[in-house]
Specification:
The chain has 260 residues and is mainly α. The protein is built from 12 helices and no strands. The chain is globular and about 65 Å long. The N and C termini lie far apart (64 Å).
Length: 260
């Protein structure tokens, strides 16, 4: 790891304005992720943004780092509560959780402002809201990704419109799949079914959406529809362990019901 950090620094000695070496250093800290790496990565982020304020990939990396830090701090907070730590320790850790949340939100939003096409920032921000039980905002973020192509027809973007939504249909299929989770969390099961079906309409081979639809049907007691989806998963991939397990379970349940 020391060598991996040494070479980017050497590059910047010879070429101080080369931003990619900073980006590579951030990668090393995030891959290693030991105590202190978050603070070291923050320092390199600042150095990078002084050189290239709108280096778009770095915004996503910052969002991803703070999402990880948010989860780490939440776990530590829970540990402190269970151990009965003093109130001042708890309050300090609560602030660390809140700071990580706000930083994560900030950098994902900055990425979306610069590049509203890339789906992963929407997914990261939606996940952040979901983890604090704010499924309404989790849903809104995903809907914003789905609705963005329509904005290209509005002034001033409509000077030259390229409709790239069709060639990114796999991205939008996955966004509909992600949206299903928000609807299930809000017990909007009809909407969840609709978005899973939309995901499959855009990408027939989206196995995440197909499996989630099968699980939704199973949870709602619609076993024939669940079986139909699992059979389709098996037809596409006969080695899929989930499909094999659920088809066997559904068939066993059907045979038991028939014998009784």
């Amino acid at each position: 790891m020391r060598k991996l950090l040494f070479f980017p620094e050497k590059v910047n000695e010879n070429n101080p304005s080369y931003a990619m070496s900073k980006y590579f250093k951030i990668n090393v800290h995030l891959d290693r992720w030991k105590a202190g790496d978050a603070a070291l990565a923050e320092k390199v982020f600042e150095e990078l943004w002084n050189m290239a304020p709108n280096f778009v990939q770095s915004k996503w990396y910052a969002g991803m780092m703070y999402l990880r830090l948010f989860n780490d701090n939440k776990l530590l907070l829970q540990k402190y509560i269970e151990e009965g730590k003093p109130r001042d320790v708890i309050v300090k850790q609560e602030k660390a959780v809140a700071d990580a949340f706000n930083s994560c939100k900030k950098y994902y939003e900055q990425y979306i402002e610069i590049d509203p096409i890339f789906p992963m920032s929407y997914y990261g921000l939606s996940s952040l809201y979901a983890q604090v039980g704010d499924f309404e905002n989790s849903e809104k973020i995903l809907l914003a990704h789905l609705e963005y192509p329509k904005k290209l027809w509005d002034y001033p973007h409509n000077f030259w419109v390229e409709d790239w939504s069709s060639r990114r249909k796999n991205d939008y299929s996955e966004t509909y799949n992600q949206l299903g989770f928000s609807y299930i969390a809000q017990k909007k099961f009809d909407k969840a079914e609709a978005v899973y079906l939309k995901a499959l309409d855009l990408d027939f081979h989206n196995m995440n959406a197909r499996k989630n639809l099968a699980l939704l049907y199973g949870g709602l007691g619609k076993k024939d529809k669940a079986r139909q989806q699992w059979i389709e998963v098996y037809r596409i991939n006969p080695n899929d362990k989930d499909a094999i397990k659920y088809i066997q379970a559904l068939n066993t349940s059907k045979e038991t019901k028939t014998r009784s």
